Amino acid sequence: MKLATKVIHSGLEIDPSTGAIITPIYQTSTYVQKKPGDNLGYEYSRTKNPTRTALEKSIAQIEDGKYGICYSSGMGAADAIIKLLKPGDEVIANKDIYGGTYRMFEQVFKNFGITFTYADLTNSKNISKIISNQTKIIWIESPSNPLMDIINIEEINNVAKQQKNILVVVDNTFATPILQKPLNFGADIVLHSATKYIGGHSDLIMGALITNNPKLYEKLFLITKSCGAVPGPMDCFLALRGIKTLYIRVMKHCENARKIYRFLYNCNKVHTIYWPGEIQHKNHEIAKKQMLDFGGMMSFTLKKDNINDAIKLISSTKLFKLAESLGGVESLISHPASMTHASIPRTEREKNNILESLIRISIGIEDADDLIQDLQQAFSNI
Ligand SMILES: *Cc1c(COP(=O)(O)O)cnc(C)c1O
């Protein structure tokens, strides 16, 4: 089945009692049993809820996976993965992972005796040098935030599989299951902040994990029902509704991105553009190989690397709303140095190319001409 069909029909089960085409919002905490243990497959909604089950099936299918588990947030999903580990175990992550993931690693799980090592994984040779017997997880984000680095998932996976018991986790939030399917490159677990493209309408917080490995699924399911970071049925309904348009939304995000890239490329105030679709992008060839298209996330710096100009620019766009988050139908603009990466000292930030004038945009699905006009008028202020 082609993807555009899959997003609409995956997880779709006609309600047996009414014929309703859309899975109802099962707003219930518990389920009546005939005798203890004699039930219709549901006992208590922390463990299982039919609206959530439909969403989990849908997300698994669009990722080409067998098993899906949904969480009350992307961080709830990430938390469940680290709970597979024990003190002394090590996680190797690419150096520019999502700030919230970094904070959870450093400020929560370090206290539990787990070690976190960060490396430039765009070169898979770097990883063979640092893998040890303690390494249990390699954590990849591709494209990364905010510089859209691309990591060769298959190569990292080949290095990991030469050792025993190393799981490869891919945070696939930026790429979406439409553009990239890490399980098909051998990854063990795919993570989504479904808050972003999967939900797609900036109206919910949600996470998901997908795997093909039944043992891993059982362990994650146990962690999830025991620790309880599960989403409510209303949010599951919204995510299911979002998925139906995921394919056409992502196609439009990509199309708009191409047009905005061309505008920025010709804009004499722009210095560097970070977008995997750019031919000069250092990992363009890998992006072309492992992604269907290049996505709607883009960053750029100004010729005059000046924080005041950057702030003026992002404060004067009208359609591009100044806000954190990404992946919604509406375009957003943000300034990593003063927002998501403000807690990192400037010298450290700049070592990683997060300059004072770096601006990140999440390109929505509005008409590209309107978005370009909006940027044009904002550039005229600096
Ligand atoms: C937003 C985000 C997360 C965290 O997800 P929440 O739903 O906000 O908890 C994790 N990874 C990436 C890449 C993200 O963009």
Q: Please, could you describe this protein's structure?
A:
The structure is a single chain. This protein has 382 residues and is an alpha/beta fold. It folds into two domains: 3-244, Type I PLP-dependent aspartate aminotransferase-like (Major domain) (Aspartate Aminotransferase, domain 2); 246-379, Aspartate Aminotransferase, domain 1, CATH 3.90.1150. It is built from 14 helices and twelve strands. It has helices at 3-9, 50-62, 74-82, 99-108, 125-130, 153-161, 176-179, 214-227, 233-244, 246-265, 284-290, 307-316, 346-351, 368-379, and strands at 67-71, 90-94, 115-119, 135-141, 167-171, 189-193, 207-211, 270-274, 297-302, 321-322, 332-334, 359-362. The strands form two sheets. A seven-stranded mixed beta sheet has the order 1-7-6-5-4-2-3, with helices on both faces. It has a five-stranded mixed beta sheet with strand order 8-9-12-11-10. Helix 10 (246-265) packs parallel to helix 14 (368-379) and helix 12 crosses helix 14 (368-379). The longest helix has 20 residues, at 246-265. The radius of gyration is 21 Å and the shape is globular. The chain binds pyridoxal-5'-phosphate. The site of pyridoxal-5'-phosphate has 16 residues, from helix 3 and helix 4.
